Amino acid sequence: MASPKNMIVAQSGGPSPVINNSLRGLVETARDLPEIGTIYAGWHGIEGVLKEELLNLSGQSPEEIALLRVTPAAGSVGTCRYKLKEHQNEDFDRIVEVFKAHNIGYFCYIGGNDSMDTANKVAQMATERGVDVVGIGVPKTIDNDVGDSEFKLIDHTPGYGSTARYWMSMVQMANEENRGSCPADPVLVLQAMGRKIGFIPAAARLADPQRKIPMQIYLAENPISMDQIHTQINDQLKKDGRLIVVVSEGLSLGDIGETKDSFGHTQFSSSQLTVAQLLVNELNKRGLAVKGAARANVPGTDQRHNIAYASTVDLDEAYGAGQKAALLAAAGESGFMSTILRAEGPGYNVRYDKVPLPEVANSERTFPKNWISADGMDVTDDFIKYCKPLVGNDWPSIPMINGRIRFAQLQPLFSDQKLPKYVPQADR
């Protein structure tokens, strides 16, 4: 048998409550595979690879690696929003140099559709340049927008179930607020993450599957004018006297002064105005059908790093996706992403498989139109049936010391740098 080669695993894009459990699944599986030697993390994603900043994960305490299960977001190994572009030949040359300098035979990238594009480019580059490196993708995004709209490539992405559970809980609590304060504040507008796709705001319906709460849900992919939404809100206020309105951050109701990241995606939490505040301002300006004012509640990145609301189902599946990626790497299955597919039959079960990276790189799933209610203000029972198993039924078990959460604490065990300093092309 050939001598084992080393592995680099890295993360990209926005984090999630369970991203580190994919990392843990990868590390705990890979360290027991004879084909794989030392496991490194690219510190802050592909940028860490380019800068030759490689954190030794094999040298970390197994107890700390295990604690990655309940350590949210990406603080342990970092993430980035750096896009490898076709013309950046110096970046690709540098990646090859780093791989050769550190005997890298496996590269695993955890992230969303843009990250799968990076994983795909690295896998293709290795093939084209005759470099013996296996490139593997590991799915991650709270938006649930990776893959196809028929759910044949992937049923759902790790991270979505936890954010859906967060919104299910937030709406339950917001309803208590709205019930109590409605004489003065009859309308409470909640804004959910999700850019162009409505899976996150749709999860608000899980808080009230019997549809007893006065609530309207507006998805970004279902356009509506300010005149229409004002009329619909007032119509329901006349009937119920109060209302919770859930909107996608990407719902187009007017100019919010958008800012964009390096991938060209709108950063709604960095823009000058939120959609929720824009709507609240207009509602209060135009007037409500009952006395009182509209108010806004706009959770920010808490939606993607709150481990207390994480789904235990999501945690387990994130681990399984990482585990599958390690097995694909060891088997030499370059150019694939590990995936989660829903098993047929009664009850909820999943299986882990693989899909070609070119099919998911830069993919963009759309929210099924038949899951949007006919009046455009809600989602259907078919969506509830799809989403309910993903949020689980239990709270995660989170270790505490002196009242504080005990997160993983990885040691700064970086490999020796063997190459000259390098500034990534896009940063020059």
UniProtKB/TrEMBL annotation:
Residue numbers annotated as active site: 143 (proton acceptor)
Site (Important for catalytic activity): 140
Keyword Transferase (UniProt): yes
UniProt-annotated site: Important for catalytic activity and substrate specificity, residues: 114
Essential cofactor(s): Mg(2+)
Main location: cytoplasm
Pfam families tied to this protein: PFK
Pathways per UniProt: Carbohydrate degradation; glycolysis; D-glyceraldehyde 3-phosphate and glycerone phosphate from D-glucose: step 3/4
Alphabetical UniProt keywords: Cytoplasm, Glycolysis, Kinase, Magnesium, Metal-binding, Transferase
Regulation of protein activity: Non-allosteric.
Residues where substrate binds: 141-143, 193-195, 249
GO BP term (any one): fructose 6-phosphate metabolic process
Location relative to the cell: Cytoplasm
Residues binding diphosphate, per UniProt: 14
Its EC number(s): 2.7.1.90
Quaternary state and interactors: Homodimer.
NCBIfam families (alphabetical): PRK14072.1
Function statement: Catalyzes the phosphorylation of D-fructose 6-phosphate, the first committing step of glycolysis. Uses inorganic phosphate (PPi) as phosphoryl donor instead of ATP like common ATP-dependent phosphofructokinases (ATP-PFKs), which renders the reaction reversible, and can thus function both in glycolysis and gluconeogenesis. Consistently, PPi-PFK can replace the enzymes of both the forward (ATP-PFK) and reverse (fructose-bisphosphatase (FBPase)) reactions.
Protein's name in the database: Pyrophosphate--fructose 6-phosphate 1-phosphotransferase
The species this protein was found in: Gimesia fumaroli
Species lineage: Bacteria, Pseudomonadati, Planctomycetota, Planctomycetia, Planctomycetales
Gene name in the database record: pfkA1_1
